[in-house]
Each structure stands twice: as C-alpha cells, then as structure tokens.
Amino acid sequence: MSSGLPADLSHLEPYLDNLDSLDPVALGRLRDMVQKYSEMKKQEDCQDDYLKFVKESWPVFIEGEHHKMMARAFERVAKGELKRLIINMPPRHTKSEFASYHLPAWFLGKFPGKKVIQTAHTAELAVGFGRKVRNLVGSQTYQDIFPGVHLQQDSKAAGRWNTSDGGEYFAIGVGGAVTGKGADLLIIDDPHSEQEGQSADPNVFNKTYEWYTSGPRQRLQPGGAIVIVMTRWHKRDLTGQLIKSSVQRSGSGEWEVIELPAILPSGSPLWPGFWSLDELEKLRSELPVAKWSAQYQQAPTSEEGAIIKREWWQRWTEDSPPHCDFVIQSWDTAFLKKQRSDYSACTTWGVFYRTNSTGEDEVNVILLDAFKARMEFPELKKRAYDEWKRWKPDAFIVEGKAAGMPLIFELRAIGIPVQEYTPSRGNDKIARVNAVSDMFASGIIWCPERRFAEEVMEEFASFPSGEHDDLVDSSTQALIRFRQGGFIPINSDDDEDDHVPRDGAYY
C-alpha cells in the first residue's frame, strides 16, 4: 500500500529558501503541505514497517532487539517470502501482544481481503485476542494508518468479524472446529495449557498436534503462512513434534525457527529494557530447573533417548551429607569467556559406605557440589583454588584440554596436586557416559535435594541431545576415575576381594 512518497522534502527547498518573501497565506499553505507530507510519510512507514506500526499504535511499547527480529520475520511473512515460522520465547516478553494482537491487525490492514485464523489454548483467550484486534482495527489510530480498511457493520462479534473488503478474522481455541473456514494467515499462540505443560505424561501433547494436523493445518489457503509463537514445555510439545515430523519427511528447511532464551548465551538478558539480569537470576533460583530450561531458555529436556534416567538417581534427603571416606573434584574447562563458549564446570563427589538390605556395607557415591560458569582464565584459576581449599579433595582432576592444561601447570606451581585426565582414543562423550551408566542403574549414585543437583540431573536427562553437557563431562570424568581406582565394585564387575579403603595418595 505504498504511496510512493519521496524520502525527503527536497522538492520544497525552493520555497524554504525564500520563506521571508512569502505572504501569510502562502506560508500557511506551505505549512499545510509539510504537515500533509509528514502524515502521509508516517502512514506509508507504518504500512510497510511492522515495528513502526507497533510503535504508533502502542505508545508505551518498550522496544527490544528480539522485537526487531520478530518484526523482520513478520514482514517476510507478509511479503510471501516466509511460509512457516516458529518463534519460541519466554513468558512476559510481549509474545501475545506482538503476534496475536498487532500482527493480525497489520496483516489485514495490508491485505483487507484476506483471511486470518487466530488460535490459543482456550477459546476464551482466542476470543479475547479477537476483541482486542477488532477494537484496534476500529480505532482512529488504525484508520489514520489504513484509511481504507473498515469493519463490516453487520459482522463485529469478538471472535468472528469481517472487513468491508471481504477479509475475515476467526478466533478459536485448541480443539475447536474450523470447518468451513480458510486462512491466508494462521497464528497459533501458546497452544499448550499450564496443566498440559506440567503433566507427567508426555502423551498429553499429542492431542494438540493431532488437532493441528487434522484441523487448522488443513484450512490453510494456497500460498498461506503459519506463524507459531509459543513457550517451550517439552520435547514433544507442538514445536518439538513439528520439527521432528519435518525432519522425518526430509523437510528440515520447511520451518524457520527463532529461539529466544530469557538469558542469552552471552549472559545478558534478552530484553534488558524490561527484565534485568538480577530479576531473571532470582526467578531462575525460584523455579524448578526443568521449568526454567524449557519455558525461559527454550531448551526442554526429555527422558527419550537419555542414557542416564532420572529415576536411577538415589535421593539423599538428610540435611547434611554422609561422612565420606574419599572426595574427588573434577573440572571440565572451556577455552574463553565469550558468547558461544562452553561453560567451565566443576563437580565434587564423595565415596561413602552404606549398609544394604543384607546388612553389608556397600560402597556408594554422592554428589556433594556442582557449578558451571563462563570464566576468563584468571577467574577460573582463582575459582579452582578456592574450591580446592574449600573441599580439600583426595583427588583433584582436570581434563587436559582447552584451558585445562594451563590451569594444571598454574595450580601445580602453587603446590596443588592436580591430576590430568586425558580420555583414551575413541573414548568420546557418549562412550564415557555409557561407561558409568551401570553405576547409576545399580542404585549407588546419590544426589541431595539441592539446586545444583537438579542442574546436574537435568543435563544428564537431556544428554546426548541437550544444548550443554559440561556438568555431564565433569561428572563422568570423576566417576570413571573413582571406578578405575577400585572404589566402586558393582554387580556387573568381575568378582574382587573385599575392598579396603585407602587414602588419597592412591590416586
């Protein structure tokens, strides 16, 4: 709907250069010309630029970089360049305002004869979106931007209304019928309810996927586009199943997926104008690890394909850890503190003896502490020294890679007996996890009810498909060393003589 206006007012320069010679009437006409031009230019900008439209219709809008990314994607959808778009983003980051309120209004302003279907996980929410979009289309601000677009007088229901040019808007909840409706633009906003997301049965997500494939997907007009904006819940939520299905059909490029974590890989907040890092970190500390990872970081975990199952971990419910005969600390280091680097991770483990059901003392292993962080080398060195001083482990192990080698040299130079760990050739991450999996399955690996333990379990639950595995690497390194030391006889091992505890010099 471009008016073809020039980018500046250069055509008025002859008048502007001679303002003093103009009489009041001519000067007034000039002012009117400039005002008219300004209004027409703003109109054109808002019609073509989604973000400018949002700013004009939502004066209190707080812009973030993720909004720019979303706006560019929506503009490509409107141009017909992008047909399948998924945006995964955390709660309270203007997901619905941006995608379910302003987008359909802007789209129908540009294409008043087209059809929009809007969905949400309940009909009430969907109709609520419809009411807001309808009211926006009927506002004076909207009319100033899209002066030729009006609501049809006899069709103004909140969830079902038409434009005067024959366009249609239809709102529906997940599970509702869409028979007889068509869509040039299908918008799906958070299709899963809180109850589904918190269900222990992953099959609850199947009903949403089945409804999508049998209902809205089939109502798409030729050349139509689908925009899904949602918070992640599970590997089998709508995003997960759509991507999996696409890959299985060899259509890996079918969907463009934009993932927006609340805390970026750089450690900065996604939307610093609204969420501070301190606020997000406080929220993170209050939420279960799995919920934070899925909903806020868009990185859900699942037991599917996991080598180490959650139920294999034994839970230590006492306030204090048991007396440990041996303590080992294990470090997995990254290269540098930069945006896409891995974390440096440290786990501390203790070996203790526990009377089993037959009255025998059985060797067990408990996670005593864990953390991961992005650190420059001086910070890494100081943290390693502090952790060694705190725990005084019998064995202090650092993998000899990345920042590990200089860390080994530096710590040895100040008298810490660091032991280098170098995996054997062909002993990759998966092989190392498999090498300790029977220890977990045997029920001798314990974790306390602490936040750091939840984070370790979460990484194991998502391995090998998770985004990060630094705590996993550190853990397997420690457990393999314990096992090699002969401290952990389990049922799958060859029969050995009774184990006699030794001191840390053994290592």
- Average pLDDT across residues? 86
> Spans of 5+ residues with little confidence (pLDDT < 50)?
1-5, 489-507
CATH architectural type of the largest domain = 3-Layer(aba) Sandwich
The gross shape turns out to be elongated
Return the structural class.
Answer: alpha/beta
Neighbour order of strands in the largest sheet: 3-4-5-2-6-7-1-8
- Radius of gyration (Å): 30 Å
The oligomerization state is single chain
Describe this structure in words.
The protein has helices spanning 13-16, 24-48, 50-57, 65-78, 95-110, 123-137, 140-145, 194-198, 206-214, 238-248, 277-286, 289-296, 377-391, 404-413, 429-441, 451-462, 470-484, and strands at 84-88, 115-120, 151-157, 160-163, 168-173, 183-189, 220-230, 256-259, 314-316, 326-332, 344-355, 361-373, 395-399, 418-421, 445-448. By secondary structure, the chain is α/β, with parallel strands linked by helices. A hairpin with a 5-residue loop joins strand 11 and strand 12 (361-373). Helix 2 (24-48) packs across helix 3 and helix 5 packs across helix 6 (123-137). Residues 1-5 and 489-507 have low confidence and may be disordered.
